[in-house]
Amino acid sequence: MTVTKPRLKEKYEKEIISQLMKERNFKNIMEVPKLQKITINMGIGSATQNPKELEGAVRDLMKLSGQKPVVTKAKKSIASFKVRAGNSIGCKVTLRGARMYEFLDRLLNIAIPRVKDFRGLPKKSFDGKGNYTLGLKEQTIFPEVDIDEVVSIKGMNITFTINSKSNEDSLSLLEKFGFPFRK
Q: Predicted confidence band at 54 (pLDDT cuts at 50, 70, 90)?
């Protein structure tokens, strides 16, 4: 059985590294920014009243990521939100390696083009250390999620963790991957 490399990983190794070394004047190949992990987080605030919504979110996240999500619990009690410490309030999954590159490929080539009234991703969503976070309003833009089985439409945050020294290095890496940033 031969294992094939994901398309974007091959593109990174064969094209993007050499382009970034020339463009950003890196002396060593280890200086080139690299995508380390992708974290997908779904916060379900109404899970305290309706546990079915959390089950549906876990199922949807499992379908689109290919691995089982971790259910996140509240750390503090907040009376105004009717949340007690220890209540399940969301789910998240961390992707690395081949699954990470396959998810990124599906996100860029299938899911983002299905977003209604899409005008490009904001360039201001970097955290100062080179990581990029993207918010999606609904999980139904992924073809793996069956619209008939969705309990309620929930948004998600997708964080791209990049080992980079600056936002500019990370931005040029993501542009090389094909992120459709606003002009």
A: confident
Q: What is the pLDDT of residues 146-183, one digit of tens each?
A: 777 776 778 889 999 999 888 999 999 999 998 898 87
Place of tokens 């993007």: 16
Record the pTM. Answer: 0.86
For residue 60, count other CB atoms closer than 10 A to its CB. Answer: 25
**What are the angstrom distances between the C-alpha of 83 and each of 52, 125, 154, 159?**
17, 29, 19, 25
DSSP codes, 132-156? EEEEES-GGGSTTS-GGG-SS---E
Long-range contacts of 6-13 (CB under 8 A, 24+ apart): 6/98, 6/101, 6/102, 6/105, 7/101, 7/105, 8/101, 8/104, 8/105, 8/177, 9/98, 9/101, 11/177, 12/101, 12/177
Alpha-carbon distance values, 169 to 40, 45, 58, 96, 161 (Å): 22, 35, 34, 20, 13
Contact yes or no for 89/152 (Cβ under 8 A): no
Report the candidate in 163, 175, 159, 145 with the shortest Cα–Cα distance to residue 31: 163
pLDDT in tens, 73-100: 888 888 877 777 878 788 999 999 999 9
Both tokens of 103, joined, read: 């998810």
Distance of alpha carbon 41 from alpha carbon 158, whole angstroms: 6
